[in-house]
Amino acid sequence: MNIAILDAYTINPGDLSWSPMEKYCTLTCYDRTPDDLIKERMQDMDGIFVSKCKITAEIMDACPRLRFIGVTATGYDNVDTEAARARGIAVANNPAYSTEAVAQHAFSLILELTNHIGAYDRSVKAGDWYRCEDFCYLLDPISLLDGKSLGIIGYGNIGKKVARIGEAFGMNINIYSSDPKAAQHSDIVTLHCPLTEENRGFINSEFISGMKPGAILINTARGALINADDVAAALRAGQLSGAGIDVLETEPPTEPNPLIGLKNCIVTPHIAWMPKETRQKVVDMSTDNLDSFINGGMLNRIV
Known about the structure:
303 residues; Rossmann fold; 11 helices
């Protein structure tokens, strides 16, 4: 069985091994595959693994040997699943592999916005502590999480994990699906919901106007959940005191993004899912999905 991984680099930039998969197939790995090479690289393949490459009905028709598509992620909107179903092509994904990692990153952003560790470290390295008249000094105000409220929008695996961490900090947890107003009025609002056409851009000026003045916004879910212009305006005006953003609507950004460069907005490059341990899970789950398919199983099957 010939298998190609079309965009392998982000999962394995060289610190992991694909060798477990090689016992099931002849494997070809491409770090990246531009759109104009997808058909060519799939031509002789019985199966593929993809993360972001778009697999359309047209591409499937051009690859008659194709029988299996493995998505090396949880989301699979880059694969036309209805076209795959109509052509008898199996599709499997990797659900819930990044729960712990994304929850950890969400709180890394929260802690940076409340404790400003990076700013204090840069200040000390610049010599400010040497010049200080006291044993300590205050730059940006530090906030205590204990007693604060945490609004969670999206209460799946990740949302539940974030809630447990918040409770450990002594925070009051407000779940949007249970009490939208309480969640929206929280000191910190964090997004963990999937993107749909109904909620695209729903974090906008209207939503923000209903939030607690000076609240913090965290988005480690999908970039298109927020209206970046409206969030940037709220940050500049102080309606939001800070934001921690790991995802943008266009990745990588192809034009200036209003959130990048704002002093009270931390932007990380979609790395919440990327601990080595989590990426190893992707390799292991993808291998198990292929094994299951070959042996007639339905592990993690979408189609």
